[in-house]
């Protein structure tokens, strides 16, 4: 039987050995992890945008004189041909060859503008007829299962956009006709100044060239007005588009037809849109920090039903999310798990309770997720937001998302 001192010595040695082993044993580092999985991937470009009517018309005074008080309010509907303002012409100046020549030039320019608008309208109508034929063909093929429903959706979208171009073309024709009528009337007045002898002429009613809604009354009170001064601004508030200025490096990734989500516009659900145009010329804009940035305007058509955004008006702010790349079955990983290692991307993978550095090939990067081409497999655990303590071979204790600290 062992003596008490020997037993105590054995216990002390065991305790010291346990303490030494605990001190020498590598510490386990708690880390946040995410599972590599297949799912939907979207790369988006986000920026603030604003709405604007596609076609607006500023009714201006065709000649100098006195404009009487305008009895219109913003939001009031007007019809085509409705009298919206009255101008009492001032006494005409002495007629000379220069004034007549300028009036004749205005008539010629108005006639040329009308011809251009008519040709553009004919082109839009022809394109609409062709898109309708393509839609009919796509509908038959989709019913037979030959083409995907996505192609059918694109054909329907093309028809809707062409229809809006026809509507805008008709608007331009009406405006051009109105301008030509004003130019001819002014020329006739200069050729026959005896009609206004003895001072100002008879009151001249200015009629609306198009039907729509009054956006702004620029000259409400009676006042002396110069030729060409704006009086009323008219537009169709239901024919809205969204314009967003993107950084040039972001705009270079956007192409016409890209899907757009319009958020935080005042409604409960986002609106759907499509990129119609990326303007070819950029401009310089100062950021909130006073830094000069090169930006490009991108124009977006709203394709959601009009009834879902009837309260949206001209000049409203919206959040624009342009989807520049998307895939339904992509191998995705959080962008917070990726880091640069020289010219290559890498990630920390948890293998047998240890951190292992893995080189990966990134196909596309989004705001929160990235699509990985090679280097990772579905089901693997990657460390997100790795700190300086993460190193090759370090023991780690993965934490579930609900166990991790808020970020």
How would you describe this protein?
There is one protein chain. With 407 residues, the chain is an alpha+beta fold. The protein folds into 4 domains: 29-39 and 329-403, conserved putative lor/sdh protein from methanococcus maripaludis s2 fold; 44-52 and 238-327, Elongation Factor Tu (Ef-tu), domain 3, CATH 2.40.30; 60-89 and 200-236, RNA polymerase II/Efflux pump adaptor protein, barrel-sandwich hybrid domain (OB fold (Dihydrolipoamide Acetyltransferase, E2P), Beta Barrel); 92-197. It has 4 helices and 22 strands. The strands form 4 sheets. It has a 6-stranded antiparallel β-barrel. A 4-stranded antiparallel sheet has the order 3-10-8-5, with no helix packed on it. The protein is elongated.
Question: What topology emerges from the helices and strands here?
Answer:
Blueprint: H1 4-24, E1 29-35, E2 37-53, E3 56-60, E4 65-67, E5 77-78, E6 83-89, H2 97-143, H3 149-191, E7 204-207, E8 212-217, E9 223-225, E10 230-235, E11 240-247, H4 248-251, E12 259-263, E13 271-278, E14 283-286, E15 292-302, E16 317-334, E17 338-341, E18 344-351, E19 354-365, E20 369-374, E21 381-383, E22 396-399
Parallel strand pairs: 1-22
Antiparallel strand pairs: 1-21, 2-11, 2-16, 3-10, 4-6, 4-9, 5-8, 6-7, 8-10, 11-15, 12-13, 12-16, 13-15, 14-15, 16-20, 17-18, 18-19, 19-20
